[in-house]
Amino acid sequence: MKRFLLPVDGSPSSEHAAIVLIERMLTGSEKIELHLLNVQLPMNYDLETNLSGLSVDNPQQERGERELSSVCALLDRAGLPYACHIVAGNPVQTIIDFAQANHMDRIVIGSRNLSPRVGELMSAVARNVAKGASLPVEVIPLHI
Question: Thinking of the domain 2-143, which architecture would CATH place it in?
């Protein structure tokens, strides 16, 4: 069984990447142990908490859960197992470090692609994860 890491940020591109993986998992073309990772930027609690309306106890956890919710709902409806992880840090480095520390076989990441030329305007996070990771990275574009 392959261990895949899917970074999820609540965007349409991360949801699209999840849909592509769900289709693969349902067709049985790949046996996948799926881990969802939400990376929250480190925050200034005083300013961010007042502006975001989140509780002071754990605003990053709440935001992470909210950003994961649509992908979790898709996986739940499909009856597929997964694990969720919410961490704070620099998104690119945190994704790479998490994948390596948890022995992932592949990172699958969604990316907006605003150009008909493949990869021309790939999101900065997806591009930098693909450049910096020592394991395979599959970028799934969402064409807008």
Answer: 3-Layer(aba) Sandwich (3.40)
